[in-house]
Amino acid sequence: MFEINDSDLLMYLDGVADPSIKAEIERDNAYHGRIQELKKQQHQWISRLYRIACPESLVLGEFHLGRLSPKYKKAIESHLGSCVHCVRELAELASYLGTEPIVSTVVDEVVQIFAQLIFRKTSADALGVVRGVRGGGKSSSAYEAGGAQIVLEVKDDEENPGFQALMGIITGVEAETYEVSLWQAGVKVDGAQINELGGFTIGNLESGEYQLIIHGPKVDIHVQSFVV
Question: Which of 187, 222, 184, 188 has its CA nearest to residue 206?
Answer without folding.
Answer: 184
